[in-house]
Amino acid sequence: MTWTESAGQLLGSLQTVTATPTELDAGIKAVNSVIRGVFLGNNYQFTIESSPVFFGATAISGVVTKDILTLTIPSNKGGFTSTKLTKTTLEKFSTSLKDFEAKMEKRSQELRSIAKEKVRKAAEEEQKAFEAQKKLSDFQLILTKRSGAEELLEDLSSFPVEIADNLKIVKDNITMRQQTIGTLSLLSSKNDCYEFNVAKVGIYEIEAADNAKGILERIVNETREKFELLDGNLKNYKDDHRLYVYTYKQDTGLPPINVLDAKTTRVKSEVAKQLNNIDSALKKYNLDSASLISKGESMTCVVTSP
């Protein structure tokens, strides 16, 4: 506050400087008001002519004692408050104001640092959550691929029971047609050409055997496709497993890969033997069938006169 006195009348100005520091700025605001008043002895009565910014009051009174002005301010909530202003110079006031501004700016910088730290921690937590979710997703992917490989192994281990039945059909067909050749030979020697021609049809009765052969060939092809699928699954599983261990510097906790490799080798070896047996049986069937048909077709029956 500054004022001049003339014949007990006061005229001056009031500057109120406030600050609300935030992370954006110091939030310093200054409001200048005109004051008028009267002076009676040591007592002063002031009226603020502009906006009521001095503690919400428009009229204040004060007493000067040894260069200290004690102001009594009516509260807008009832009662009075008091504040003391010490006599000073404009130069000292300017210095004090600069110190106040510097203090508020420092607080604003502190709030900026706090806000930045909050943002950093939030980003860090978000990154941790993302990495944890990615780690879980990577593990679930590995688990899915291992499960897929294990399911294929179980499927291959339970080789279709229909194989034995269809192999028997194929072998029995060859046996039946071999018996037909024997019957043809016997009928031919007896000159029983009617029965010979009826029996000769038997060498072409291959429908059941061909159906069984088709089933066996389908099983062989599907099984070999499963082999390829299993090999692909195992490769992908191992690659992803190695990447997981390298990325996260820890094991998956799943059973060792060499256990899965050993089981794979054993199952594939056992199944391969069965596939080879089927291949051999089908090749033999094709050769025997062609041979029997050729032999049967070459056989004839001639009626001789007595």
Descriptive overview:
The protein is an alpha+beta fold. It has 2 domains: about 1-100; about 140-300, no CATH class. The chain has helices spanning about 90-155, 160-190, 195-200, 205-250, 255-300, and strands at about 1-5, 10-20, 30-40, 45-50, 60-65, 70-75, 80-85. A 7-stranded antiparallel sheet has the order 1-2-3-4-5-6-7, covered by helices on one side. The longest helix has about 70 residues, at about 90-155.
Helix-strand layout with pairing:
Layout: E1 2-6, E2 9-19, E3 28-40, E4 43-48, E5 59-65, E6 68-74, E7 80-86, H1 90-157, H2 162-189, H3 193-200, H4 207-248, H5 257-298
Antiparallel strand pairs: 1-2, 2-3, 3-4, 4-5, 5-6, 6-7
Question: What is the gist of this entry?
Answer:
It contains 5 helices and 7 strands; from the N terminus they run E-E-E-E-E-E-E-H-H-H-H-H. The chain has 306 residues and is of the alpha+beta class. A 7-stranded antiparallel beta sheet has the order 1-2-3-4-5-6-7, with helices on one face.
Keywords:
306 residues; alpha+beta; 7-stranded antiparallel beta sheet; 7 strands; 18% strand; rod-shaped
